[in-house]
Fold these 2 entries.
Entry 1:
Amino acid sequence: MKINQHYLQLEKSYLFTMIGKKVAQFQQQHPEVDIIRLGIGDVTLPLCPAVVEALESASREMGVKETFHGYGPEQGYDFLKEKIAGYYAEKGVTLALDEIFISDGAKSDLGNILDLFDADNTVLIPDPVYPVYVDTNIMAGRKVVFADADASNGFLPLPDENTDADIIYICSPNNPTGAVYDHAGLKAWVDYAKKRDAVILFDAAYESFVADPSLPRSIYEVEGAKEVAIEFCSFSKTAGFTGTRCGYTIVPDALVRGGVALNGLWLRRQTTKFNGVPYIIQKGAAAVFSEEGRRQTLANIDYYRENARILADTLDRLGIRYTGGKNSPYIWMECPNGMKSWEFFDYLLENAGVVGTPGAGFGANGEGYFRLTAFNDHENTEKAAKRIEKLLSK
Ligand code: PLP
């Protein structure tokens, strides 16, 4: 018996453990300090009433013989896929129901999709980015190369003559930088993928935070993208489903490589290894698209957007450069006075009692940067912003 040796190549995931340790230690030494956490990537507002009502009603259906549901379709119920197709139609994107696959969240599918690709492919991953892309590829023994995302390209790398990749990850709006590609940027990647016969894995987990109507919320808003891209999305940040678990993946019928439709491969993979998202949860997710559901979830997003605005305004007044905050719940700020990201973490914790996330935890290019999130409440966000302003204007 031999274990998968690639797991031994993974770096110890110490980012959030280290943050937790440092915060606990500081709190123990300074119990009087009211620590405010702007490091959280999880939502804090509860599920909206329309979703709760749908979950309750679906639960009751499950307790009645006539309306009980056993195994459902592995790729999801049509009632939810129809709502998702309707949502995409508003963005000008037409989807067939068989192109939509309901999942228990974007994270699982982002990892699982790698089943479809040979280990020999070269994978291009932006640096910095959500660490799951790198780790899942290392687990599979795949060669990873990085696309530098830095201040020089607004944290939005584009393909150039040196780009050499078969699989390309794009996360827009980006975690952690909050940067969002415009149409021209996404088109450059779509054109590259077409020329190269590469496949783009587009993570749209934060699409609902895009406020600027000129920015794309789906890669399929770019012409020809259906021939090159798989899109992952989630109800986690859109509707507070981080603990409820539901997402979806779009594998267009037009995406064909080596004469094989990837949609068929993914269907085969899912029907073999996955038994679907609970009926109750899919009913809750469908309620996100009802009139009240849309209104209520948007109100929650606006609440977080207001937090982002408070933080962004503070940094504007301080003259600190940052990306994000306008079309994203994340604010990616330059550490002041050339501080390293862990150094700034300690400085902010010790002098302002505010916790953020050191950029170095998201990749080598994250060094010297710091991520603040909009997921705390107004009161704490305002308090934290005031403390940051007082400290950094010294
Ligand atoms: N993609 C990105 C970029 C994320 O930041 C996250 C979670 O923070 C996910 C995907 C995971 O989403 P889900 O909760 O749907 O698994």
Note: The mean pLDDT is 96.
Entry 2:
Amino acid sequence: MPAEQPGKLIVITGPSGVGKGTIVSLLLQRYPQLRVSVSATTRQPRPGEIEGVDYYFLSKKDFETAILNQELLEWAEYAGNYYGTPKAQVVKQIEDGNYIILEIELAGARAIANIFPEARRIFILPPSIEELEQRIRIRGKNSEESIAQRLEIAKQEIAASDEFDFQIVNDDLESAIAQLETAIFSLIDTS
Ligand code: 5GP
């Protein structure tokens, strides 16, 4: 593993519904040198999600085979489904000298910290739990049970946010992006 190339890996974590996806896609539009890793998941696609773009949607059996074959850099169970980072694409991007963003939950972020201690880890916070619940409901793509589960996990994740190098509150989108740019460009400048 290319541990001698510090800081190429950027981990972005934060509760479901906090707006990580929106922030990351705007950042990618502005900075073509950034790449994002496409995860594998056993969750059902949401309306509009595209195979190979949003996720690789796998059956439970195929996901378990990928775990056994050690094809995943990290994986975790989240709200009843598996999520994991395909190893090959991340290793290739790092070898090619690209900056690669992983948008993953807490257990995965902790696993990456063990494998790549030099990774820059950023946590996106909601302005409040009430606002987070509102955002998950507005997205309108989760059942009541799934909303309750996601809010419960969110509280646990937020409690661990100080493990990260940067904490950014996604209150105003542009301001959150500006803070993320600072976090990433300070990384680019020093590498
Ligand atoms: P969602 O179902 O809302 O797309 O994602 C649920 C959670 O899984 C989010 O916190 C998201 O960041 C996380 N996630 C997505 N891909 C991965 C992955 O490859 N590994 C891990 N550990 N978490 C992931």
Note: The first strand starts at residue 9 and ends at 13.
